[in-house]
Specification:
Elements (H helix, E strand, L loop, with lengths): L1 E5 L3 H12 L3 E6 L2 H10 L3 E4 L5 H6 L8 E4 L4 H14 L3 E4 L12 H4 L1
Parallel strand pairs: 1-2, 1-4, 2-3, 4-5
Length: 114
Amino acid sequence: MKIVIAGAGEVGSHLGKLLSREEQDIVIIDPAREKLDRLDANYNLMTCPGSPTSFATLSSAGVDSVCDLFIAVTPYENTNLASCAIAHSLGARKTVARIDNYEFLDKSHRPFFS
């Protein structure tokens, strides 16, 4: 399974470490190269420096080819939502965004996110 994770903070790094142990095809995107270098050197995963809202970065990470799951877990929910929308439009089969706004969980807004 090809999984692309946007964000190499605590949540993204932890997910990448866990999923790499399960021998999944993992790519982590983050603008901070030093975070990516530590992950790349110690775990069985690939890294891609850049912005998760950049079409070029997402294409470099393979989102436009066979991406089964795109997970956006940056500290910024707007970035997470935007990157999931872009990843979906590029061909990611499933997307998951980390959000803090409970209004997004309201059932009446569900059609907007479908």
